[in-house]
């Protein structure tokens, strides 16, 4: 991949997600995963973007085939579980439970003039605690040490979803 | 890296941080490519050495 192609086309990703809302394929979305964490922490290496969406289609497929078709018609490519824009992989993940609440409560941002939402750090921590991989624990540690955390909000989310933070 | 420096990085504007992530990806790919290049240069050498060792051992055993 050339240097130019390996840039992260995040504005294009967010613009496309806004289009999916406009055409009614999804109700709402927010940036999640590592890129959402990076909004609050130091930059770390990540190879994809996670867009967490609230589905318009509440059937089992959550409208994912229609989302793929729409984005492919706009020039996106499919590679395994990712959709690729300018060779950058993006995962569209249907929200439910904790992640749906995280989308609804996400922070409004503008990225290169594109309106979008990004998960609040308390939700990123709770989601990481629920997944519990090594990289999720590292993400929790980073957010706790580098981001401003609303402790009562975090405690409330953890309590309602029956989650615990890893022992330090 | 010192925690203070990491906290300073965390305060950068998001767009700047995304540019830095892209730099990290480029560096990581370069390191991987360099390592692969080194391996492909070294592998035939080690293979030759291993084969020679194997031959010596086999010869030693058959003698």
Characterise the protein shown here.
The complex is a heterodimer of chains A (168) and B (63). Chain A has 168 residues and is an alpha+beta fold. Chain A contains seven helices and seven strands. In chain A, strands 1-2-5-4-3 form a five-stranded mixed sheet, sandwiched between helices. In chain A, strands 6-7 form a two-stranded antiparallel ribbon. In chain A, strand 4 and strand 5 form a beta hairpin. The longest helix of chain A is centred in the first third of the chain and has 13 residues, at 10-22. Chain A is globular and about 45 Å long. Residues 1-5 of chain A have low confidence and may be disordered. Chain B is mostly helical. Chain B has one domain. Chain B is 90% helix and 0% strand. Chain B has two helices and no strands. Chain B has helices spanning 3-10, 14-62. The longest helix of chain B has 49 residues, at 14-62. The relative contact order of chain B is 0.06. Classes of the chains: A alpha+beta (168), B mainly alpha (63). At the A-B interface, loops of A face helix 1 and helix 2 of B.
């Amino acid at each position: 991949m050339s240097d130019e192609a390996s840039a992260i086309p995040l504005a294009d990703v967010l613009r496309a997600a806004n289009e999916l809302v406009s055409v009614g394929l999804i109700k709402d979305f927010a940036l999640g995963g590592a890129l959402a964490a990076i909004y609050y922490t130091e930059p770390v290496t990540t190879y994809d973007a996670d867009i967490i969406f609230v589905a318009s289609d509440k059937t089992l497929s959550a409208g994912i085939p229609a989302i793929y078709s729409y984005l492919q018609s706009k020039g996106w490519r499919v590679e395994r579980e990712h959709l690729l824009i300018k060779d950058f992989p993006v995962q569209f993940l249907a929200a439910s439970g904790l992640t749906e609440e995280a989308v609804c409560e996400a922070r409004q941002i503008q990225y290169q003039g594109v309106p979008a939402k990004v998960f609040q750090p308390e939700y990123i921590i709770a989601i990481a605690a629920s997944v519990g991989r090594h990289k999720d624990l590292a993400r929790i540690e980073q957010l706790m040490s580098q981001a401003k955390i609303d402790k009562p909000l975090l405690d409330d989310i953890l309590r309602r979803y029956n989650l615990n933070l890893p022992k330090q | 890296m010192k925690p203070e420096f990491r906290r300073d990085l965390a305060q950068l504007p998001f767009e700047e941080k995304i540019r830095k992530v892209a730099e990290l990806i480029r560096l990581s790919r370069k390191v991987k490519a360099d390592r692969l290049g080194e391996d492909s240069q070294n592998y035939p050498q080690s293979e030759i050495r291993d084969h020679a060792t194997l031959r010596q051992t086999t010869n030693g055993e058959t003698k």
